[in-house]
Design goal:
Elements (H helix, E strand, L loop, with lengths): L5 H4 L3 E4 L5 E4 L21 E4 L21 H15 L5 E5 L1 H12 L10 E3 L15
Parallel strand pairs: 2-3, 2-4, 4-5
Antiparallel strand pairs: 1-3
Length: 137
Amino acid sequence: MLATNPVTRFAIKTYGTHNNPIVFAHGLGCDQAMWKDVAPAFRSRHQIVLFDLMGFGASDTSCFSYERYQSLEDYADDFIEVIEQSCSEPAVFVGHSVSAMIGVLAACKRPDLFRIDQTITLHVAERDAGYSRPMSP
């Protein structure tokens, strides 16, 4: 059963100011803790948003299903939900590895939620056309 609260589902944590949001997204095999030495440097001037991909970290793994997570676009829908829940204005996005690609897909779907001119992608994972394999928790 899908938890209705995205804060619980994705273990969303926010801190810092309440404007100029920066959303940090981790790569596979880790969780939001990977940003513990980076994100705090921005808190005096930005709202910091951290979350865990479904199936990783403190996310609610009871919400994971192979049917729901068949493509990277499905994860992009989660990113959109995190930003809608956490940010009152377009966000700077910082994504590592596969989350960098998922963030780009989310920005293509909902460019109004992102500061496209300030999107940062680190170690972007390659994406083959037609990728269709869920990332197991």
